[in-house]
Amino acid sequence: MHVRARFVDEGCTLFSKRIQRDARAGLTVGGSPDLIAKMAVHLRGIMFADVYANPGAYDEDELIETLTDAILRLVYGATPAEAGH
To answer: Gene3D superfamilies, per this entry (predicted)?
Structure first.
């Protein structure tokens, strides 16, 4: 339980703080920063759980690239490349 708490709760808190900062700057999608952060942390957690349950089922580089893009789209509405950064 300690690992899960650190992964979800503490990770979500740190991520949420970054989202709140970016939201104040008008850089994120609309919605509650806490909710957006929790969604992103859970998406990451569920995907990693699937990877651990099914070793070798995914190309690791493609997985990280796709997961990163999915989380960036969730939080910011676009990837940095799409946003011109």
So the answer is: Tetracycline Repressor, domain 2
